Amino acid sequence: MISSSEYGSHSWELLVTVDHQHEEVQKEFLLRVTGDLHIGGVMLKLVEQIKISQDWSDYALWWEQKKCWLLKTHWTLDKCGVQADAKLFFTTQHKMLRLRLPNMKTVRLKVSFSSMVFKAVSDICKILNIRRSEELSLLKQSEDILKKKKKKDKNSKEPVTEDILNLCNSPVSSGLSGSPGFYSKTMTPVYDPISGTPASSTITWFSDSPLTEQNCSILAFSHPNCSPETLAEMYQPRTLADKAKLNAGWLDSSRSLMEQGILEDDQLLLRFKYYTFFDLNPKYDAVRINQIYEQARWAILIEEIDCTEEEMLIFAALQYHVSKLSLSSEAQDFTCESEVDEVEAALSNLEVTLEGGNASNILEDITDIPKLADNLRLVRPRKLSLKAIKPYWFVFKDTSVSYFKNKESAQGEPIEKLNLKGCEVVPDVNVAAKKFGIKLLIPVADGMNEVYLRCDNENQYARWMAACVLASKGKTMADSSYHPEVHKILSFLKMKNWTMSPQAVSDPESIDMKPECFISLRYTKKYKSKQPTHPQDTLAARILEAHQNVSQMTLVEAKLRFIQAWQSLPEFGLSYYIVRFKGSKKDDVLGVSYNRLIRIDIATGDPITTWRFSNMKQWNVNWEIRQVAIEFDQNVSIAFTCLSADCKIIHEYIGGYIFLSTRSKDQNETLDEDLFHKLTGGQE
Fold this sequence. Notes:
Strand order of the largest sheet: 14-13-12-11-17-16-15
Distance between the termini: 32 Å
Strand content: 15-25%
Structural class: alpha+beta
Number of helices: 20
């Protein structure tokens, strides 16, 4: 054995392969080095030997066996652990990558393969002019989904040619801190808030950006809908297990693309990973709003998320309206200032945030807590008999609902008091049938207690539903988000409430409508099997009926309405994983949402237990056995292993949502990247 100092004093040969385009020059070089030579010195020696005069500033050393970059140029070879058997690769840090956006368009741009994915996504979003990059991430499609796609491609007669938007000349993607695209941190409006077109002045500001006016419209506008044949060929998740496959491929935000086996010119999906869309503003977020709208649209069309037939028709009507406005030249016209002011006022009420925004007036939250009291009907499902439906006098106070035999007995003890904190609230509504129900799944020791409340009309339903939603998050009706929540529910119900007008069917613009482009395959098949006897019962006619309620909306408003309606669905924001809980003998599905975890029965799809992040004390991962352990208040602790994906993905999801909950409008848009990695990175 020789000491490290003796070893360091002896020189040895190091093989480095250089990634360059000069065919006449060799690619492999043997360097005579010593262990105390630093990485920067190795690179200098190498460039001197190559004898090609070019800019080497973007090059770095990649250690093939260890799958890691040697970026700390002041570290010595000994400190890095590099010895004579190491195979080093001298290559560019920025490489071409194809990204499939939520609107199914593919862009090709240069991305850092050496930065952590979190930073790479931030750079990509600057090029594409998408604010709040922390909400997005990169997804690698699973092999199963790709195999099914390839099988379908083989069966199709014509080869598919993909239209790729090339943004490879971007100064940001070349590793330079040049033009920020349209990404503006000033408060100067960047987009027209009605049509979403770039404000004419901003085009000249950023004339060196790859996002020309034409490219920007590709990202900010919804383009003609896909054909029914294309929709039929797309991968459609049928079961919870299928939905779990969709979430298995999220890249690790704390490691680089190269470290995760991504190669130059590979294709990845850029998607909104975290469903907390913070501070959506039509003046700056035309691209972001359009991409969220597109992600929501495809989730509904391929049934990643379930909705009722009535809701599907609303989504179809909004899509039809958006595509009609996007194709018409009127949508591109600029409007006068007074009209913009009116629309800004309307859109400020439509601002889409899951938590309902921050309290504008602190006093509002510390006054007496309001209460609701009214006659509702209680429905309790019974296993062996019909549902028992009885009217009671209900009182909603704080985060609890109590019910009494009648109004007079409300001064005494209630028949039962239901604490809604941490419960699941599911709408059970059919506006056409005048059914306004609220399904409550209340956590109890051995699972979930199921209770239905039936309301008499829309207004009563909106008030009680909003109170239940807030109570499930531990908030009362004194919270400033209560009234916006009521308004949101009422506006969604209003969209569902339509009556047929004869002129809608005879509208000349609607004759060419292809309803199959706006509806999921399941509902298209259902309508085809019905064979309607009356022209007003056709699928196109039903969509046009629903369209009457949204036909006056502007383009951006219609997209925001679509996003709001998507957020109102019971399954919104749930990402599924197949897990095995500690002590359990069977697999379950774990749903990860922005504020809770839900254990779901894999066979029936019914929720078993809910755990809120607000009650979480700590979480960690045992990396040896790949087990996630979480502790909650009141000595509740759970542990599970993830079967459908790496446990790091769930760990990052939980930490990511907690990180996003720390954002506030008062902050600058710069993020605490260290905090993100501290919460999501784990100590692997």
